[in-house]
Structures are given as structure tokens and as C-alpha cells.
Amino acid sequence: MAKEKQEKEITVEDKLKSLYELQQVDSEIDRLRVLQGELPQEVKDMGDEIEGLRTRLQNIEAEIKTLESQISERRVAIEQANAAITKYKEQQDNVRNNREYDNLTKEIEYQTYEIELCQKRIKEHTAALEARQADKAKTISSIEESTVDLNQKKAELNDILSETKQEAENLKTRALELEKNIDERYLTAFNRIRKNAHNGLAVVTVERDSCAGCFNKIPAQRQLDIRLRKKIIVCEYCGRILVDPFLATEVKEHTSK
Length: 257
Description:
Largest sheet: 4 strands, mixed
Helix content: over 70%
Low-confidence stretches: 1-7
Order of helices and strands: HHHHHEEHEEH
Oligomer: single chain
């Protein structure tokens, strides 16, 4: 019951003031973000790039291990083939007929072909290994250079954040307090308009009989309704919430105290 009574005590004028102040607070938060510039996104992108390079390095190292293993296997195969040739040549000295001699000769030729094939593969794998080792060195260098750049960007960002941290926290706290006095439907509309507006303005004043957001003329009767502060009125052209300049001044004077 106490909560319902509190909600009833919040007048439309109070809601308008809360909306306008919330706009001022959010605009100030936007200003702090502008101070950070593109640094947060740059830091994120550079971090993602380094992670990509590290993944690439892992893949290269896996390929290097595979190539080294293949070269080692081919060398073992050559040793086995040479051992087989030696054995077959010794057997040729003790054959009993030409058929056995010819069969051993074919085995020697086959093992010789295997040696030549292994040597060819070793040459190919060695060339690929050298290329991948060069890629590894280049990737490591890129990671080191990118890490230095990333640390510099992080230092720049941390300097800015440390300067504005307390101010940003105070603004965010104030924004949450103001949101409590605003109906959910208006708050949803406020956030939607801010997201779509290029300047982030969802609540604007009436200036020179026009909406300060889109600069379209506001009819006299509508301006009177705005000054009465009995209901929340939006611009029929851009959808922004409209407040009279005097209300804006009252809010600014109140918040400056």
C-alpha cells in the first residue's frame, strides 16, 4: 500500500523533470564515452586479433610437429629399406636358381624405389617445414608487436577511465535513481528514441515554437499543453518527448545546487 501511495504522489510534472534530468545525465555519460573515443573498440579489436594470431600459431606448431614426424618416419623407412637391400643382396649370393635370384632382384628394386620415394617426400616435407617455421617466426613477431600496441592502447584507455571513473559512477547511480520515478512504458520509449537518435536526445525543449530535436513547428495549443505539464507530450514528427524551456531551467538550477 505504501508503494502504491508513493507512485500516486509522483505527478506528471515530476515525471517530466525526471525524464529531462535523465536525458541530461545520459548526455553527460555520452560525453564521457566520446572522451574515450574509439579506444574501447580498438582495444577489443586488437585483443581479438592477438587471439586469432595465437590460434594461428597453435595451428602452425601442430603442422610443424606433423611435418617433423613425417620426415622422421621417412628416414626410418629409408633405414629399413637399406637394411632390406643389404639382406636381399646377401641372399642373392646363396640362391639355388635364377628364379630366386630374379625375385630378390625385384625386391631390391622395390626397396630402392621406396628409398627414392621417401627421399622425395623428405625434400617436400623439409621445404614445407621451412615455410611453416618462417610463418611461425613471422606470427610470433606479429603477436609481440601487437601486444606492445595493445598495452599502449590499454594504458591510454586506463588513464582516461581513471580520470572519469568516479564521475561516470555518480552519473550512472543518479540515472538509476531517476528511472525509479519514470513509468516503464515511458522509460522504454525514452531508451528506444535515444538509441535511434543520432545525437542521443530523447527529451528536448520547445525552442522558438519548434521541437529542438527535429526543428519542426509545434502548434500553439500543443505548446500550451506542454507548458501546463499535465501530460507527457511527444513531437508528432520525431517522437521525442517535449518539455517547456522553463521546466528545463528549473531542473538545471535544481541539479546545480
